[in-house]
Write a sequence for this structure.
């Protein structure tokens, strides 16, 4: 390869919005940064080594260990990409940076870390807004399904009672009652199919994992459920124990898992009951629990609970139907995250699902 080839990239690097850098490990000096440094960090390139300790001091406290962990990987010879960090700007607003780096040696054999830094604040803010919207949308779907199906189930039960208590009804009247009952059953089925299909379709997409604080994320997810107490007739509680709990997960997929578990809790918890979601760190694991005070799961159904088309599938207390696919998909998604899911339940004593995911450094 011609020695001139690297020079061909100089024009591209000089005009790029991405910062290219080379850091000499021996004396802790940045020996090169591209012109985009001024655009991303707001200071002249000539000040870069003076700025470096100030920049490191502005890295979010919860991301410092994350940065050290990946720097150790680079020094060990690995190449790291898309390492996201939060940096506090002078006005207090967070700036999101995406870093890629690898180990390199110059002609004199001195060790360097070279790579790129990109400001991804706009993309990250849009992504966070989208995730918050999706969380509210999915929670709203579950709440609406509960609200819409409830009156239909009640009407179905009233029709069944009317047929039983009215033996002298004419054949045409009985036929009309059967049609009304069928319409109620179909209506409830359509409502549940819509929500179930939303879950199943989103479960079949490739995982896109990112590092995030489970405690903050779950708090946002549960907001909509907590606001729904007055019309679901259930109490939703959320508890985060200890400091922030970071994990690498696909936010949309894990959101579907939690929504499906909460949906099941709604189905099998009588009015006035409690549904509790919690998160905590235990050793190297991040634990998420979804517990309810519902009717519980018979012990005989526990072994096959997570199987496809499990025999444990049952209609909900308000007539909600189930395909039996939910728990199988939930386990699949959790295992794709290198985690596991377990259940503790007894008839009449409620149910607790626990998801264990690898916690980030």
């Amino acid at each position: 390869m011609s020695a001139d080839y690297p020079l061909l990239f100089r024009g591209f690097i000089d005009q790029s919005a991405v910062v290219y850098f080379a850091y000499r490990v021996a004396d802790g000096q940045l020996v090169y940064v591209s012109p985009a440094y001024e655009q991303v960090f707001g200071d002249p390139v000539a000040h870069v080594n003076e700025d470096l300790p100030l920049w490191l001091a502005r890295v979010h406290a919860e991301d410092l260990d994350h940065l050290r962990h990946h720097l150790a990987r680079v020094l060990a010879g690995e190449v790291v990409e898309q390492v996201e960090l939060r940096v506090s700007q002078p006005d207090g607003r967070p700036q999101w940076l995406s870093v890629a780096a690898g180990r390199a040696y110059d002609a004199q054999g001195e060790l360097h870390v070279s790579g790129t830094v990109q400001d991804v604040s706009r993309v990250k803010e849009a992504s966070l807004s989208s995730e918050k919207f999706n969380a509210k949308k999915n929670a709203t779907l579950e709440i609406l399904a509960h609200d819409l199906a409830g009156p239909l189930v009640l009407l179905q039960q009233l029709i069944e009672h009317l047929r039983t208590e009215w033996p002298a009804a004419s054949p045409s009247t009985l036929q009309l009652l059967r049609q009304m009952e069928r319409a109620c059953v179909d209506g409830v089925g359509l409502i549940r199919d819509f929500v179930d299909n939303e879950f199943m379709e989103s479960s079949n997409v490739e995982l896109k994992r990112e590092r995030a604080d489970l405690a903050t994320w779950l708090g946002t997810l549960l907001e909509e459920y907590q606001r729904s107490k007055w019309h679901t007739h259930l109490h939703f509680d959320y508890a985060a124990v200890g400091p922030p709990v970071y994990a690498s997960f696909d936010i949309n997929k894990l959101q579907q898992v939690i929504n499906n578990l909460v949906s099941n809790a709604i189905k099998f918890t009588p009015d006035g009951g409690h549904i509790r979601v919690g998160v905590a760190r235990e050793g190297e694991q991040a634990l998420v629990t979804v517990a309810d005070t519902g009717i519980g799961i018979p012990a005989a159904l526990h072994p096959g609970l997570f199987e496809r088309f499990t025999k444990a599938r049952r209609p909900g207390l308000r007539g909600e139907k189930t395909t039996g696919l939910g728990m199988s998909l939930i386990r699949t998604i959790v295992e794709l995250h290198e985690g596991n899911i377990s259940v503790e339940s007894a008839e009449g004593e409620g149910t607790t699902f626990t998801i264990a995911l690898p916690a980030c450094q």
